[in-house]
Amino acid sequence: MILVTAATGHLGKGVIDFLLKTVPAHQIAALVRDLAKAEELTAKGIAIRKGDYFDATSLVKAFEGIDTLLLISSGSMEDRVGQHVNAINAAKEAGVKHLIYTSALKTSFQTKFIPGVDHIRTEEYLKSSGISYTIFRNTFYAEVVPMLVGNALETGQWFYPAGEAKANFVLRADIAEALANVLMAPEKHLNQTYEITSGKSYSFAELAEQLSDVTGKTITYTAISTESFKAGLVQAGVPEAFIPMIVSISEALKDGEMDVTDAALEQLLGRKPTALSLFFQANYAA
């Protein structure tokens, strides 16, 4: 039996939808914290297991009878590694045979991306656990681009501190489909780590050109300093607690941490990943 954690989130729901195209609903389980949010999954015939990454006991019970587990990394930054360790330990105790974990692209202890350190620590713990694993090191979702663009569509000016570096973006749906493929045949991916990217990286100037073409508006990218970016966040009223995370994204991009292309996603999908231009057309075309 397959279990998908964080099943009411965008990625979790996407994975389940792809699984349902091939796997009978009674062979799929979903881990949720709030049963009230699982009505859509219940209607599809998915078995609902209640559990919380902070509650190790709840996870052991939720993982009973599960052969293959998708551990979607926690969205909560509070003791994030501890949450993941709870899930890995529970999986081992419950007899899970294979665990898939969603990490970050080319993560390391030197990454500028704040959550990246949590990811590498989780990866190391998973590898030492003795459970068979597959690690998806995902680049940024294409769905992150609108957050980076801000109000540039209205002003025509895109100010961001990414310098001249390039970045790689992938549609969340493509990652969900690839994860579903691995969940259905984990024996083909034993103890593998995949760098999940599209086939092309883009500078922010190139992204601005694509947005201009799709929207019919001239959008100009201007690289600014990190200090100016921070000041703008403060002026915009962004809560102080969120600023380090937002800045770490820009620093990782500026350092080229997301300028990676790898064939793994194409191989897992059996086709080329969806072009970023199609995402822009779907979301920005007039």
Automatic annotation (TrEMBL):
NmrA-like domain span: 2-275
Database matches in InterPro entries: NAD(P)-bd_dom_sf, NmrA-like, NmrA-type_oxidoreductase
CDD domains, per database record: TMR_SDR_a (cd05269)
One matching Pfam family: NmrA
SUPFAM superfamilies assigned to the protein according to its UniProt record, in alphabetical order: NAD(P)-binding Rossmann-fold domains
Domain of life: Bacteria
Cross-referenced PANTHER family: NMRA-LIKE DOMAIN-CONTAINING PROTEIN, QUINONE OXIDOREDUCTASE 2
Descriptive protein name: SDR family NAD(P)-dependent oxidoreductase
Organism whose genome encodes this protein: Runella rosea
